[in-house]
């Protein structure tokens, strides 16, 4: 009987839809892979880290501890783990895939696009007619559209008509805090998960995966998450960095920091509600939920992870300047958001503190921001670094907050 049950389970798994995940780090495995595995999908995990791939292969399983009202542990097993250079196996996985997702961070998308192009060329040349959607689950605007551009530039011209007809790149928004852990086989994360993709950009009928919501208002959902969740998170990170903290929950529990986060996301929430027609009470609930998640001490989220890539996070459509620009357009209060921008600029003066140091890439960006502010002042630095100059009222708010924060 046990053999029959095992055989039946194996047959069920073999007939299940297939997901290929580029980026087998904490975030990809702690959210995308966890959701897909619990929905019964077959998983192929792809990464450029040979030690991680070998570990996943040798152990054959990893655990995800989901922290919520009722914590629970999920064991993920039965997956295929591939190094990104294992071309034949990777191409075979893409040829059979029903969905491809990336979780690699923005700087790595061009390289992934080149690898994907070779695999998709083989799929298209083999005459596979089933549509395939590729979602870049990154914390950025237009992530999948950007990935499409990287893929397209490496495809032969003869394949482009079929590429446009059969391969979709729906822009996406994904939200769950997955801190970096010492043991890559023991992921601790929050149970909360939000993941949407643009139904209008999907190729064919969008694949059904529990936990992935296909929406028609992707821009609105993305901005709500980016401006509130990511905006609040990065303000907490930089104010915590200035305050000498190591973890997000420590900074969020500081009585001087939390009111500033609350003010900034309330301003962003008001702007989002007016621009996209969300009920204000609904957005208020979203804001409070975020604030409650920031203080969870069991999620030991090192704030150095949160404050990475300051120049990107100061982008005109990003988590701080995006809502600030919207508040300027709608003539709404924005002192809290300006304080958040000032916290990034002031934080970049502090390249190390209390034994906390940055890696080389982030150190270079911190130095670049610091030097720009030293030469041009806060408003001029923003114009030079990201091409946005705040209006006079915002510029004054930012300057005043910067002077107060820089110490």
Task: Write the SSE topology.
Elements lengths: L1 H13 L3 E5 L3 H13 L3 E6 L2 H10 L1 E7 L4 E6 L2 E4 L3 H10 L2 E4 L6 H17 L6 E5 L6 H10 L7 H7 E2 L3 E4 L10 E5 L3 E5 L14 E3 L2 H25 L5 H5 L5 H19 L3 H15 L8 H4 L3 H4 L7 H10 L4 H13 L4 E2 L2 E2 L2 H27 L5 H15 L1
Parallel strand pairs: 1-2, 1-6, 2-5, 3-10, 6-7, 7-8, 11-12
Antiparallel strand pairs: 3-4, 9-11, 13-14
Helix pairs in contact: 4-5, 5-6, 8-10, 8-11, 8-15, 10-11, 10-14, 10-15, 15-16, 15-17
Name of the CATH superfamily of the largest domain? NAD(P)-binding Rossmann-like Domain
**Proportion of beta-strand residues:** 5-15%
Q: Tell me, what's the shape? A: globular
Nearest-angstrom radius of gyration? 22 Å
**CATH level-two architecture of the largest domain:** 3-Layer(aba) Sandwich
Terminal residue distance: 71 Å
Helix content: 40-55%
State the name of the first-level CATH class of the largest domain: Alpha Beta
Quickly give the structural class.
alpha/beta
Question: How would you state the average pLDDT, rounded?
Answer: 93
Strand order of the largest sheet: 5-2-1-6-7-8
CATH topology of the largest domain: Rossmann fold
Total helical elements: 17
Q: How many separate domains?
A: 2
Q: How many β strands by DSSP?
A: 14
Q: Unreliable runs, pLDDT <50, ≥5 residues?
A: 5-10
